[in-house]
């Protein structure tokens, strides 16, 4: 055991309120009080206490003694009776500190030493005040952690959006909405897992550090392992490893975990994000549509208690939709043709697509082929106008390198994207399982990568070897968990991700 040393005096350049708190800290230590003790004998959480005493009449003394802990978020220090509100991780509770229960010295200590933001533990009897407020009449208290920084104003809270992101810990302390988002996210994750488990899926974990990046078209983060002296990539998708498991006989698998893409951050993107991906042997993109609808409806009901959500569409208009209503389907080429008033097919030439894009105001790059221009048309003409849940399906084969050729339509792949409020939420394939065709497509991707396309996939020989051991017909789906939270709350990704990536302060 090491001997506790006294802390240095508060620096003179601290803000006044912080200097005062540091002086209190020093005084407490000098008096032999540990301002950061190892614990306190808590007997119940505040939420459980409230649940056990839901309907007490005013001015009731229960005779029940409890020990509760929490952060002091409100305080009224009167004469012989003081009131404070404690907040733990579950709820808020009023505590009362009186001269006759504590004695003059301990009541004076509370008034002098305790600040808003401090953690305390109290013991006493469960009562109700004259106004009927559930309370604890305190006969013993201890400081359990001294707060050295003042909390934001109780009325204004933490109003700066940038500060809320950078100091999420403060946001959670003072903002009830932030705490509810934290709880809601947990309910959504539990709901997703329950939906899969009810359908016989098993949850797995696959590598985040990968020697070859693949499974999506995205720019990866690159790192280096000194032991092997080789570069590794933070994964951009879980797809290729989950498919290896299907080859190995795990016929229904899912993973909820982090993916990383070296791209900018905006209202719908964060370089580090939570993704859900799953695979079902003998499924296809039709079975995955049914699964995805069940996941989202269950999550809404479990997290919100309703399937009605509000959001802002791609044009900035707030709208309300009921997710339980039938979902729409539109094919890529059928939807584009309807929007342009001219038929577009997989055989439409690049020159004709450019003319149509120019007329419709759809931007493109001269180096783009048929598939890339069609993708841009989908985003500008179909996705931006999809408010209610819409499956946009049957994409060009050339931009779907991991997807099976459509069983009856030449030139298109069995793939859909789910769009709600103008934002892509999920995507699914009937998976390409032919190892010869898959090699040809990944070889084409690797040539693009060699030519400077940083988002093109590399040739993964081990994955191709796995396919050569035969993968059964399979349907796969990926869903952005952060975007699902956004859908259910109407918030942007910076609010729904607990710690989104931000530039360092001062940069």
| % residues in beta strands | 25-35%
CATH topology type of the largest domain: BirA Bifunctional Protein, domain 2
**What is the molecular shape?**
elongated
Percent of residues in helices comes to 25-40%
Question: What does this protein structure show overall?
Answer:
The protein is of the alpha+beta class and 507 residues long. The protein folds into two domains: 16-151, Beta Barrel (OB fold (Dihydrolipoamide Acetyltransferase, E2P)), CATH 2.40.50.140; 173-327 and 388-496, BirA Bifunctional Protein, domain 2, CATH 3.30.930. The chain is 34% helix and 26% strand. The chain has helices at 16-30, 46-52, 99-102, 104-113, 161-166, 168-174, 176-198, 239-247, 285-304, 332-340, 350-360, 370-382, 435-450, 461-468, 481-489, 493-496; strands at 61-77, 81-87, 92-98, 119-128, 134-145, 202-203, 209-210, 221-225, 230-234, 252-260, 272-281, 308-312, 318-322, 328-331, 390-396, 412-420, 423-430, 474-480. The strands form four sheets. An eight-stranded mixed beta sheet has the order 6-10-11-18-17-16-15-14, sandwiched between helices. The protein has a five-stranded mixed beta barrel with strand order 1-2-3-5-4. It has a three-stranded antiparallel beta sheet with strand order 7-9-8, with no helix packed on it. Helix 11 (350-360) runs parallel beside helix 12 (370-382). The protein is elongated, with a radius of gyration of 29 Å. The model has no long low-confidence stretch (mean pLDDT 93).
């Amino acid at each position: 055991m090491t001997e506790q040393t006294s802390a240095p005096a508060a620096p003179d350049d601290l803000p006044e309120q912080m200097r005062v708190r540091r002086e209190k800290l020093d005084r407490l230590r000098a008096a032999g009080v540990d301002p950061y003790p190892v614990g306190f004998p808590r007997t119940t959480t505040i939420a459980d206490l409230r649940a056990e005493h839901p309907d007490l009449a005013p001015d009731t003394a229960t005779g029940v003694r409890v020990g509760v802990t929490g952060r002091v978020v409100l305080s009224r220090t009167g004469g012989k009776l003081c009131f404070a509100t404690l907040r733990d991780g579950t709820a808020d509770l009023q505590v009362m500190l009186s001269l006759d229960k504590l004695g003059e010295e301990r009541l004076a200590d509370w008034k002098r030493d305790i600040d808003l933001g401090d953690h305390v533990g109290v013991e006493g009897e469960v009562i109700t005040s004259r106004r009927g407020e559930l309370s604890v009449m305190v006969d013993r208290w201890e400081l359990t952690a001294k707060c050295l920084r003042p909390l934001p104003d109780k009325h204004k809270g933490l109003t700066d959006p940038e500060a809320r992101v950078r100091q999420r810990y403060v946001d959670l302390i003072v903002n009830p909405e932030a705490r509810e988002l934290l709880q809601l996210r947990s309910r959504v994750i539990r709901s997703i897992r329950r939906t899969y488990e009810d359908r016989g899926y098993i949850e797995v974990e696959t590598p985040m550090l990968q020697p070859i990046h693949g499974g999506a078209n995205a720019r990866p983060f690159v790192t280096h392992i000194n032991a092997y002296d080789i570069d590794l990539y933070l994964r951009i998708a879980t797809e290729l490893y989950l498919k290896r498991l299907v080859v190995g006989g795990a016929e229904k698998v899912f993973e909820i975990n982090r993916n990383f893409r070296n791209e900018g951050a905006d209202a719908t993107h964060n370089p580090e994000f939570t993704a859900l991906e799953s695979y079902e042997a003998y499924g296809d993109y039709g079975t995955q549509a049914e699964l995805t609808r069940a996941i989202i409806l269950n999550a809404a009901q479990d997290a919100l208690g309703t399937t009605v959500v509000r959001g802002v569409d791609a044009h900035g208009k707030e709208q309300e939709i009921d997710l339980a209503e039938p979902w729409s389907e539109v094919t890529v080429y059928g939807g584009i043709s309807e929007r342009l008033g001219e038929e577009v097919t997989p055989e439409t030439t690049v020159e004709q697509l450019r003319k149509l894009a120019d007329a419709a105001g759809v931007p493109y790059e001269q180096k783009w082929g048929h598939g890339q221009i069609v993708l841009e048309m989908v985003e500008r003409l179909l996705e931006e106008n999809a408010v209610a849940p819409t499956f946009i399906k049957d994409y060009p084969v050339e931009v779907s390198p991991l997807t099976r050729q459509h069983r009856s339509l030449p030139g298109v792949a069995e793939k859909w994207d789910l769009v709600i409020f103008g934002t892509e939420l999920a995507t699914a394939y009937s998976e390409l399982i032919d190892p010869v065709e898959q090699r040809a497509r990944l070889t084409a991707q690797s040539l693009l990568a060699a030519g400077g396309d940083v988002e093109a996939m590399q040739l993964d020989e081990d994955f191709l070897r796995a396919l050569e051991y035969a993968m059964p017909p399979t349907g796969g789906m990926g869903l952005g968990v952060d975007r699902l939270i956004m859908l259910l709350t109407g918030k942007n990704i910076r609010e729904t991700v607990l710690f989104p990536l931000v530039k360092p302060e001062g940069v």
